Amino acid sequence: MFRRSKVSDKGVYAILFAALILASFIIPYTLLSSPPPYVLFTFWSLAAIISILLAYLALRR
Amino acid sequence: MSSGELYFPLIALFSVFMLASMLLGVVARRRGALRSVEEYYLGGRTLSKIHFFFTYFATTYSAFMFVGLVGFTYLYGVGTLGFELIYLMGTAALLSLLAPRILEKARSLKLITPTQIIYAENGSRAARYIVSLTYLGFMIPYMSVQIIGPAVVLSFLGLPREVAILATLTTVFIYVFYGGLRGVMYTDILQGSFFLTIALLFAAYLAPGLASSQPQLHTLPGGFGYWSLERFVSLTLPWIFFSITNPQVLQRIYMARDRSELSRGILMFLIAGFTLTLLMVVAGLGASGIVRIDLRDPNQITPYLMVNILPEWMALALALAVWVAALSTLDSILLTLSSVISVDILGRASVRVGRYSVLGIILALGIFSYYTVAPVVILAVASSAALLYLVPIIMLTLFEKPSGKEVSLLTLTGFITYIVLFILRNTAYPHPLDYASISALIITSIIALIIYARKKPKSN
């Protein structure tokens, strides 16, 4: 018998979303503070695309 | 092309759009928009994914996208993209995790207003009235932004500001008064399709300037050192929670036909929102590579481009897009606030009272818009910041069953904290960090967590 995880699917998605949003605040002001052109543009765009994919997965449940 | 030349073509174009919008309001009435309170405010809870997508998209994205966002990007750089996309990430998270639960609750409790999700189950009178007054008190500036912003843009093209305000108020009044949510939804489809198309053309026209855009705009804190971390956090944080704090978008979740249509509509919204954001940032960065504008007010950049850079047909189309984007946000807030007045404040859930509430708000708004001129973005952001203290209260009512006293305590604490600190921040202790809304959010979060922990059954 396997025991169910204490963290629900919804909890996992919530943690992933929170990490993504937090990274979108922290990384541009630390690691990417003086980037070449379009690096920040690409970073935030990718983060937004990942959030849409996460939303897709969360809504499919 | 100089300012003022476009007066007559502009009038003609606006007249056509005004008539079309009013006609859609009449069509909505013929289709039973006034049949019941549920029909008038929620479209009978029958919105398909397409209807949900268009009304959510057109409600969320306002004239700010064409005026504020382009101007901010032009002057302050790519930090503007971060600000807008973090909003989208927050919305993706909240809608995907909470919207199905909100829909379920709205259906089982037959909720009409956004305020009801907080007090319907526990009967908190304090929450009912304080939250309603918070919505009314802080959404009026947000609504005025939707009127003043386009009026400023149109004045660059020769249309007097007063005429633009009157045209906006008259048009939106007619189709909301006669068509209710169905009037709003039909016009949202027209408006949303139109301004998305124009955004594409606008960005395509300015995109060639991307290659020579200012290098400083690609870094942080960007042009004029605007995007300091404090400002970035202060402006962005309230928008992360926009989808549950702002009543007009929260109420839209109640309207979906079922969970499946809601989910698909949400995904369509996220993709379209992402696209529109990229387009407007491309337009702002591209413009910086094409022309040097000696202006410091971000709200004047788009009007400058319209008058001096864009071809005449595009300037006209963009002016109309700014106006319809404003209308599509204004109409939704108007209808939502009328539901708050009639159901939550007056306690009279009738279509007749709702329609007279619409009239009352329009009159108040006319006075407010005519006599108030303030920076577009600051006003819009202030309204969302003021609603931030509602986040833990809404979360708690979604996941637990707090008592009326507990909800009243939370509401009063959050509201008083915000108001006191808001006054301090605007008088004695100004600071770039919006400590008023953040403190109110933290305090209500702590109290909500304590209540939640006490209610959770103790594990063995």
Keywords summarizing the entry:
heterodimer; A: 61 residues; mainly alpha; 2 helices; 70% helix; B: 460 residues; Hydantoin permease; 19 helices
Q: Summarize this, please?
A:
Chain A is mainly α. Chain A is 70% helix and 0% strand.
Describe the protein in words.
The complex is a heterodimer of chains A (61) and B (460). With 61 residues, chain A is an all-alpha fold. Chain A has one domain. Chain A is built from 2 helices and no strands. In chain A, helix 1 packs antiparallel against helix 2 (39-60). The longest helix of chain A has 22 residues, at 39-60. Chain B is an all-alpha fold and 460 residues long. Chain B has 2 domains: 7-377, Hydantoin permease, CATH 1.10.4160; 388-460, no CATH class. Chain B has 19 helices and no strands. The model of chain B has no long low-confidence stretch (mean pLDDT 90). The interface between A and B is medium-sized, with 34 and 34 residues.
Structural class of chain A: mainly alpha
Q: Unreliable segments of chain A (pLDDT under 50, ≥5 consecutive)?
A: none
Largest interface (CB < 8 Å):
A-B, 34 and 34 residues
In CATH, the topology of the largest domain in chain B is named Hydantoin permease
Terminal CA distance of chain B: 77 Å
Domain count of chain A: the total is 1
| Straight-line N-to-C gap of chain A | 24 Å
SSE class of chain B: mainly alpha
Helix proportion of chain B: over 70%
Sheet with the most strands of chain B? none
The percent of residues in helical segments of chain A reads: over 70%
Largest sheet of chain A: none
CATH superfamily of the largest domain in chain B: Hydantoin permease
